[in-house]
Write a structure and sequence with these properties.
Helices cover 36% and strands 18% of the residues. It is an alpha/beta fold and 439 residues long. It starts with a helix and ends with a strand.
Length: 439
């Protein structure tokens, strides 16, 4: 009698433990898949900034969803002490169903992030790309000519320098935020800017990011490459990575298009590096949104590069994200879209300490010139992306501002000075500034 009395009880206890373990295993599997997905996502360029600056609630949900199934499974344990086992069974069943859903969602997002930018084929266009480690060539552009995909482009010739005095030792053009791939961008203004730059024949054109609207879309990159090849066939180009370029694994296509095999940098990164030229030292920073990528290696590299730079000639910093700038409060964000609350305290003291002359950025879709504590700042996010609204906040550092005006910035380097020329899409001069080199 005692034997037949205890066996069913022990058997039922064993079945209950198995049910608990089953729910726990399913929950743990979903948690691990969610953890892997989030770890991969936040290893990508710009992902941390996307979390902070855009749709924070959605990305927070992607993190927290991994805790839900395993949490419900654990909550079912004390319910087993109830006389009725139904609540515990409902919780365990719910935990397993949610585990399947969370696991499937995690795998789907991971597949989208990894496979999305790798689906489709990047067109093999022939554009002249500046190799940061080689510098800016004025004599033989063939050494710096690469096509998207990494093949060396042959037959490039240097542009003839026109006679005249005084002649600048270096001529560069800069613009940002063309946003290929979105209908709200002004394609005609973008094309006009590229044609105007081609006619101007600078030694290099720096494009400061947001080349495309969604970085993971290969079609958008192909549109950009096709236009660049057609409208800017001989001008040496050096693009930076913007926050839109980085979206959902877009760094893969950025590197394939603009930093193919054969190019290198002093930092070892395709996103931040210095370009040393006899006329100036250019420091390119990786700031897609703000300081999310400015930690550890990049900060240490920046301080070493600035310390090494020759302060007898201008030091020019280029980035996508701005520093001082006028702007507005975006109704979809709880962050100010002006005078960058991250970049200014974290980076500006370093720039001042090492005597940086000029900082040029995009991100804000204005043209603006600003000065603060001996450093000049220019914002030139005017390459065709939809213009930002009129600023509700005018930066105290602002000296000149143009709203809803597409165009570019030319910087000519002379002995002891730089001349900044803000131009509209056709190349007409809008505003000019001269920055004397501090000794």
């Amino acid at each position: 009698m005692r034997y037949t009395f205890f066996m069913p009880s022990k058997w039922k206890e064993s079945r209950l433990n198995a049910a608990q373990k089953r729910a726990l295993v399913w929950g743990l599997a979903a948690f691990i898949l969610c953890l892997v997905m989030n770890a991969y996502h936040y290893s990508l360029q710009g992902a941390k900034g996307l979390y902070i600056w855009n749709r924070t609630g959605m990305f927070r949900a992607f993190i927290l969803m991994g805790f839900v199934p395993i949490g419900i499974a654990l909550l079912s344990f004390p319910l087993d002490k109830l006389k009725s086992k139904t609540p515990a069974k409902i919780f365990r069943g719910s935990a397993i169903v949610l585990s399947i859903l969370v696991g499937a969602a995690s795998l789907g997002i991971l597949g989208f992030l990894f496979l999305g930018p790798r689906s489709g084929s990047l067109e093999q266009t022939r554009i002249v790309l500046v190799n940061p480690s080689k510098g800016i060539s004025r004599v033989n552009l063939g050494e710096a000519a690469f096509s998207a995909g990494g093949k060396v482009a042959s037959g490039s010739k240097a542009e003839t320098v026109q006679a005249g005095a005084p002649k600048p030792s270096l001529r560069i053009s800069i613009s940002s935020d063309p946003h290929w791939g979105v209908e709200s961008s002004d394609a005609s203004a973008r094309s006009e800017i590229l044609a105007s730059i081609s006619e101007h024949k600078p030694d290099v054109f720096f494009m400061l990011g947001d080349t495309v609207e969604t970085g993971s879309q290969v079609g958008e990159w192909n549109s950009a490459l096709t236009d660049l090849e057609a409208l800017l066939p001989k001008t040496p180009l050096r693009p930076l990575l913007g926050n839109h370029d980085a979206l959902f694994g877009g760094q893969y296509l950025f590197k394939k298009a603009f930093f193919p095999k054969g190019l290198s940098s002093d930092s070892g990164s395709p996103y931040y590096y210095s370009i040393v030229d006899p006329a100036a030292t250019f420091i390119v920073l990786d700031l897609p949104w703000g300081t999310e990528e400015f930690k550890g290696a990049q900060k240490s590299w920046l301080m070493a590069a600035l310390k090494k730079a020759n302060r007898a000639k201008p030091i020019v910093v280029l980035s996508h994200s701005y520093f001082y700038a006028s702007g507005y409060d975006d109704p979809g964000l709880d962050k100010p879209w002006y005078d960058h609350y991250q970049d200014i305290p974290a980076i500006v003291p370093i720039l001042r300490e090492y005597g940086v002359s000029l900082v040029v950025s995009g991100h804000n879709h204005y043209q603006e010139f600003l000065q603060k504590d001996g450093v000049s700042y220019a914002v030139i996010g005017a390459m065709g992306g939809i213009p930002d609204p009129a600023p509700a906040h005018l930066s105290l550092a602002s000296k000149w501002l143009a709203v809803s005006t597409f165009g570019r910035l030319d910087v000519d380097f002379y002995e002891g000075r730089m001349v900044l020329s803000f131009r509209d899409a056709a190349g007409t001069l809008l505003h000019e500034e001269t920055i004397a080199q501090q000794r």
